[in-house]
Design brief:
- The chain is of the alpha+beta class.
- It has two domains: 1-30; 43-151, Protein Transport Mog1p, Chain A.
- The protein is 32% helix and 24% strand.
- The protein contains three helices and eight strands.
- A hairpin with a 6-residue loop joins strand 2 (61-64) and strand 3 (71-74).
- Helix 2 (43-53) crosses helix 3 (137-151).
- It starts with a helix and ends in a 16-residue tail after the last helix.
- It comes from Microbacterium lushaniae.
- This is DUF3515 family protein.
- Keywords: Signal.
């Protein structure tokens, strides 16, 4: 009987230690709270996001966990946010550039945040990049564009005019 009680105590002690470690581990890296895009449940999003989750970093920024489907975040503080399933843009007068095998439309910068969306791809990906600090905008889109181009179905349209963002 004492042997059973001793085993039970050790088991309970192990469970308590594991629970405590889980609490401390979760306190060290907080989850980034995001809103999923309208078409976030698209299987194409799942395929690309699964590959993104395997990437430990983007442009030198460490991956962060998110709480919304088909999203990604990198940096501490967060400097890169990706959402899949945003509305697919049609023809546009917005500047377009080609990085990582992907066409990107650039929205006007607002409050130090540059937002871009893929062009010619369904579902569309939106990336928001903090334009403060040493983060290289082109490197971010080169790396993300390569993953999108490799793991999503081919683009069905391309920009008719492209702007160069590399010197």
């Amino acid at each position: 009987m004492t042997r059973r009680m001793s085993l039970a105590r050790r088991l309970l002690g192990s469970i308590a230690v594991c629970a405590l470690l889980a609490v401390f581990a979760s306190a060290c890296s907080s989850t980034v709270s995001l809103e999923p895009a309208e078409d976030a449940n698209n299987p194409e999003c799942a395929r690309v996001i699964a590959q993104l989750k395997l990437q430990p970093n983007v442009a030198g920024e460490s991956r962060r966990w998110t709480d919304a489907q088909a999203t990604g975040a990198w940096g501490s503080p967060v400097s890169i946010i990706l959402r899949c399933g945003v509305p697919v843009p049609g023809p546009s007068e917005l500047p377009c550039f080609y990085l990582g095998g992907t066409d990107w439309l650039a929205f006007p910068e607002e409050d130090g945040l540059q937002r871009v969306v893929t062009f010619g791809r369904d579902p569309a990906f939106e990336v928001a990049i903090a334009r403060t600090g040493a983060l290289d905008f082109a490197t971010v889109l080169e790396e993300l564009g390569q993953l999108i181009d490799t793991h999503q179905n081919p683009a069905v349209a391309a920009c008719s005019e492209r702007t160069s963002i590399r010197g």
